[in-house]
Amino acid sequence: MIKSDISAQKVQDEFTKGKQFKENLNIFEQVRKNEKFYLGKQWEGLNTKKIQPVTFNILRRVTSLFQSQVVSDDISWDIRPFSSNDQNSIECQALDAVVERVFERQAIKTKNRKVLRNGVVDGDLCMYFTFNPKINTGQLVKGDIVAEPLMNTNVFFGNPHSSDVQSQPYIIIARRRPLSEVKKEAKENNIPDWDEIQSDMGSEFVGEDENISNELVTELTRLWKVESQTQSDEFAIPQTTENIYFMKVCGDIITYPPTKTDMTLYPLAWASWIERNNCMHGISPITEMIPTQIAINKQATYIGAYTQNIAMPKLVYNIQRLPNGWNGDPSKPIAVTGDPREVIANPIGGMQLPSGVFSSIEMYQSMMKDCMGASDTALGNISNPDNTSAILATQKASNAPLELQKRMFEQFNEDCIRIIVDMACAYYGIRYISVNLKQTKLDGSQTETKTDVLLDFGKFSIGAMDINVEVGAATYWSEIVSMTNMDKLMQAGMIPDPVLYLESIPNSYIPNKQQIIDSLKNQKNKGVNTQ
After folding, report:
1. CA atoms of 83 and 91, how far apart (whole Å)
2. Phi, psi (rounded to 5 degrees) for 271
3. In this predicted structure, what is the pLDDT of residue 161?
């Protein structure tokens, strides 16, 4: 904890300023509207008692297509040091294991689907990382990294005209939390007026149940960077570094005092589905298609009402001859007045619906899906699939508009990995990590064994910005693909040395790989000595 001139009122003023920016862009109302249309509440607020409304939720199907196409390739990564030495190699192996552990324990690949869903429906993707010191990890110290998808209505940039997270003067994260939990944490943080924390409505946040609004409070987490001068031990050269500070505020009460961390990056990954110039917020593909969705629903409803009221013929009879009304039950007789042969009941009506109406609604649906980049081929609506190769080629071409979003999503995950690495160096302390250690034998040969090593993450010589992180489809880093490429290079004679070939193959593919390599090297050395 540190002394700071940032008061709770200043944080609330910055929060109000951020809300005004979003309101000027109509973000809160547009996100609320997009969410309702995605969920199928497309007639909400309209008086439809006289007709039965019809909903064709094309937007949700297209959103599911976008999610499946962007995450169809599993994400993998490769962490490598810029400077190559044994210590950096061990540290990168440790960081790679940490990232893999966080991805697995936090189910980030699953949460990515929710992040993508938010990106399509709301316009922006956001993943917020925190460190929970209470998680039991089985290590010497407790605590682990937690990932949480956020909606764009919960994030406020100090400079909302820029989408670059790391250049922000400050970031405010607004979250709706139970009042009892916030009071408990404030009491544990020795806040004297913790019992004075009051609930609030928070009506601007989408998805809140009004029935429990009196039990929730808006917690604001303010993050900002502070520059400090450090001195290199080796060269005694002053260096400027940035550290992340944070505090929490509820109303006019500081529930967590300003605290310095060893993090150098804001723990927030951010991206937009369709970017706008000079704005932190992106554009949702759903927004511009809502009027078309409404037109489709209206036409479908009109067709339903027409069919019910006009298209079906009605039976007309003479009430003077049938005073008891018409009875359609064939097992019961019908009482008539006068001669039964003079009773006449005729069907009338039954106007045929013009075919152009159906053509119109089909045109709306087709053009809507095409404009959103979701053609029938991409959705799998293919008739007479005779030529498989042509179908696959067409589907690949139809998915081309999403290539930009795929590249954006890869960069988004790279930002997540850098944040995880940065937080591990800041919070993990001393922990056991399994790494591959190389050992040199007396004859000069090297062996590689997997060993648990005790590492101090706080003393790593490479920080979050001193490593090279490559993110791509898992097939890019797939061991199977690597094996196939190595076999082709071997067959082409580009790798004539079998030792080099074996050293490039993953260990899991050949049992006793190192013993085979040592044997080949010994045979090679004997041949040289004999000559």
Report:
1. 12
2. -155, 160
3. 96
Cα gap 409→439, rounded to integer Å = 39
> Does pLDDT of 392 surpass 50?
no
Helix ranges restricted to H, 307-402: 355-371, 376-379, 388-398
Nearest to 255 by CA among 217, 225, 208: 217
Q: Provide the whole-model pTM.
A: 0.76
Residue whose structure tokens are 């973000």: 27
Residue 104 is encoded by which pair of tokens? 């697995």
Tokens 């310095």, residue located: 260
Cα atoms in the 13 Å half-sphere on the side-chain side of 318: 11
User: What average pLDDT does the structure give for the chain?
Assistant: 80
Residue 435 CA to residue 92 CA, distance in Å, equals 9
CA proximity to 505, closest of 488, 482, 521:
482
How many other CB atoms are there within 10 angstroms of residue 18's CB atom? 21
Continuous segment of H or E residues that includes residue 222: strand 216-231
Q: What is the pLDDT of residues 216-232, one digit of tens each?
A: 899 999 999 998 776 65
Q: Which helix (H) or strand (E) holds 24?
A: helix 8-24
C-alpha 443 chain-centroid distance = 52
- Using only C-alpha atoms, the chain has a radius of gyration, in whole angstroms, of 33
Report H helices in 326-354: none
Helices (H) and strands (E) in the chain, counts: 14, 14
- Residue 272 CA to residue 27 CA, distance in Å, equals 14
pLDDT digits (tens, 9 = 90+) for 233-242: 555 566 778 8
Give burial (CB, 10 Å; 0-12/13-18/19+) of 252: middle
**Which residue in 160, 201, 151 sits closest to 18, CA to CA?**
160
**CB of 451 within 8 A of CB of 434?**
yes
Amino acid identity of 60?
R
User: Strand 216-231 vs strand 170-178: parallel, antiparallel, or unpaired?
Assistant: antiparallel
Token pair recorded at residue 492: 């082409």
pLDDT tens for 12-55 read 999 999 999 999 999 999 999 999 989 888 787 676 667 778 78
Q: How far lies 110's CA from each of 79, 128, 284, 358, in Å?
A: 22, 15, 21, 40
Burial of 34 (C-beta count, 10 Å sphere; 0-12/13-18/19+): buried
Cα 340–345–349 angle (5° rounding)? 175
Contact 518, 445 (CB under 8 A): yes
Of the candidates 164, 69, 73, 163, which has an alpha carbon nearest to the alpha carbon of residue 117?
69
Residue 172 CB neighbours (<10 A): 23
CA distances from 158 to 25, 163, 168, 288 (A): 16, 11, 6, 28
Contact 381, 395 (CB under 8 A): no
**Cα four-point dihedral sign 253, 172, 242, 167:** negative
